[in-house]
Amino acid sequence: MTDYREMWSGLGLDLQTHDAVLEIVGKMYGEVYMSQKNRPKGMEYFDFVMSEIHGLRIKELMDAKAEGRKIIGTFCVFVPEELILAVNGISVGLCAGAELAFDAAEQFIPRNTCALIKSAFGFKLAKVCPYIESADLIVGENTCDGKKKAYESYKDLVGNLYVMDLPQVKSSEGKVLLKAEYQKFAKKLEELSGNKITKESLQKGIEIVNSKRKAIKRLSDLRTANPTPISGLDALLINQVYFYDDPIRFTNSVNALCDELELRIKTGVGVFSNKTPRILVSGCPMAVPNWKIPQIIETSNATIVGEEMCTGERGTRNFVANENLSTEEMINAIVDRYFNIDCAIFTPNNERYENIKQMAKQYKADGVIYYSLQFCQPYQNESISIEKMLEKEGIPVLNIDTDYSSEDIGQLKTRIEAFIERIKS
Amino acid sequence: MGSVPSTYLITNYMISAGIDIGSRTIKLVILSENIITFEQVVDNSFNTMEICNKLLDGKNYDKITSTGYGRHLFADYYECDVISEIKAFSLGIRSVFPNVRTILDIGGQDTKAISLDEQGKVKKFEMNDKCAAGTGRFLEIMAMALRYNLDQFSTAALSVNEKESISSMCTVFAESEVVSMIGKGYDRNKISRGIHFSIINRAINMLKKVNIEDDIAFVGGVANNIAIKVLLSEILGKKIYVPNNPQTIGAIGCAIYN
Q1: CB-based contact, B127 to chain A, within 8 Å
Q2: Which of A110, A201, A121, A114 lies closest to A154, judged by CA?
Q3: How far is CA B188 from CA B136, B181, B198, B199, in A?
Q4: pLDDT value, residue A244
Q5: Which residue of chain A has the CA closest to B71?
Q6: Which chain A residues contact residue B128 at CB under 8 A?
Q7: CA pair distance A54, A249, nearest whole angstrom
Q8: Strand order in the sheet with A137-141
Q9: Which CATH code, of 1.10.1520.10, 3.20.20.70, 3.40.140.10, 3.30.420.40, is assigned to B126-241?
């Protein structure tokens, strides 16, 4: 393996802690991913990406920086990658999924803050994230209260934070706000990169992101097959790598995998038997290396067929129209696409209820496991009415509140197993 | 014992064992032709498998199924089927009380509320997350803080009509709350009653979430506590059924499942 230590210390990482993190995550990956049976061969690419996620990918980012390209770190699916690509920038996701340095994080944010936000602080304070350290601009966004207040102190920690406002109501005024914010963001990107957003560059950016989303859509559609040709854990991993990898290479790799999955479906090859209960997972995002709930589900004789979350269909559904449009029209098309995101910060959030019902039907889910991060008010709130709605429709629901710790794995395993028994009976 | 599901009757020549490996105790039941031929509850320790091996030593059975938090560990050694406690309780309770549709289980580290449909299938269930508030462990620690054994503790709670309210549900905080009440010279029996009420309130919240369907079966180690049973029945105005041995219902369920 290449020695990246010089690059890491150049980025200011704490090598000792970083070594420990890599070791733990590597071990977890082996236990969770490499122990799976009947994996498609196309997953080897994603295994490789994961093994080099702090290595080769960071090297690529450093090389790109040396050529003058800018790295934009983001925490949310509301940040339009199309605009970043249009100034020849690179978008990387910064959300983290591990409990690290939470005690240090609690010097800045209250204890009753969700694990997703806490780990963004933890990874910064422990100096273990090469993505945070290599970013030329970190984009925060006013989604939930937890995040928007946290950014007030995150600003001082990172020094290059840009906060984007977001609407909370799907009104015409809300859309005007989103457009104004995207225009402001476009200007910020132009200033930072020294590149103008042109009709051609924006069209190209839209095309790249559309292709990426189309590849994911193709993958999702293949998961409607029974037996399912790919595990939910592997599909989640692809949705997570979506935020880190080079978009064109990622798209090609997903499409190559889909070719293989199509063959599998033709020949009736699946990961699990066709009697295995099919689960739709819904709720908060799962950032790397948060594989806790999917692993419990898929080692309890069930399989996940869809993710109704930011690291899943909430982040990737819908495309941006870009045929024969002017720059202004393309910006409008971007606003149209992102304004449809059914994030729980919106009130009311009716689209989400319809989307979950539609997904449960499309993926032939036998039940929904609703996953909330503790202290995530927006998603916890919606969990109650969504459970009622789905149960009324005859779709069993298990509501789970958890965090990144492993203390509750025993109880969660009991609850998930009992839920799967309930579906089967 | 009441009626036994037909699946068991068909195979009633099988000697069927069920083991429930809980956080505090391990329960073994052996059924032979519908009849419990062996039933035992032993304490768990740091070496669960050693205790299981000892418990099963010399026992004769055709098939065994495990449940409880140690179910997978056991199944790895004995290569047997595994069912969740929720399923085990629902199967076990219907063999004792065929009409019951609501189950409350308070064990060593978990509290569960289960509602069944008319056929006895699990309709909905609730279970505590990682915290042991309101479980058997909570009662043990509170009894210890009051220098009572578990029987005295329960009797004390029923010996008075008034209670001192315990506001904290957390085992750690509640213990210091109790210690400070003792320090202020509060009546020990009233504190005992208050502690029992705090467990009951938590159990009722969980039961309401799954809907209380008629009478309630109360199982798990805490069902041996008379005060909880009596007070729960008083508050809800429902009959509370406690099996002769409330700790072995999960193990019976496993034996029936075979």
Answers
A1: yes
A2: A121
A3: 19, 9, 15, 17
A4: 95
A5: A414
A6: 411
A7: 17
A8: A90-93, A71-74, A137-141, A161-164
A9: 3.30.420.40
Can you tell me the ipTM of this complex? 0.82
Is A414 in Cβ contact with B110 (below 8 Å)?
yes
Closest by Cβ to B84, choosing from A402, A408, A421: A421
CA distance A306 to A279: 7
With tokens 């898929």, the residue in question is: A298
Confidence of residue B48 (pLDDT cuts 50, 70, 90): very high
DSSP 3-state of B169: coil
By the CB < 8 Å criterion, does B56 face chain A? no
Token digits of residue B112? 């569960």
Token couple for B47 = 């070496």
Question: Which of 210-249 (B) contact A at CB < 8 A?
Answer: none
Q: Are strands A137-141 and A90-93 parallel, antiparallel or unpaired?
A: unpaired
Q: Is B121 on the interface with A (CB under 8 A)?
A: yes
Q: Encoding tokens for residue B9? A: 């009757």
Average pLDDT of chain A? 97
The residue of chain B nearest to residue A394, with distances taken between CA atoms, is B123
- Residue A140's DSSP bridge partners are A163
With an 8 Å Cβ cutoff, is B129 touching chain A?
A: yes
Q: pLDDT tens digits for A368-393? A: 999 999 999 999 999 999 999 999 99
Q: Which of B81, B87, B91, B208 is the best residue to mutate to test the A interface, defined by the most A CB atoms within 10 Å of its own CB?
A: B87
Judging contacts by C-beta atoms under 8 Å, the chain A residues touching residue B130 are: 405, 407-408, 411
Chain A closest-CA separation from residue B76 CA (Å): 14
DSSP H helices in chain B? 6-10, 48-56, 71-78, 85-96, 136-145, 150-158, 171-183, 188-210, 226-236, 249-257
Mean pLDDT of chain B: 90
Q: Which residues 379-418 of A are in CB contact (within 8 Å) with B?
A: 401-402, 405, 407-408, 410-411, 413-415, 417-418
Domain segments of chain B as ranges: 6-97+247-257, 126-241
The whole-angstrom distance between B129's CA and the closest CA on chain A is: 6
CA A385, CA B69: separation in Å to the nearest integer? 31
pTM assigned to the model: 0.91
- Give the CATH fold of the B6-97+247-257 domain: Nucleotidyltransferase; domain 5 (3.30.420)
- Domains B6-97+247-257 and B126-241 agree in fold: yes
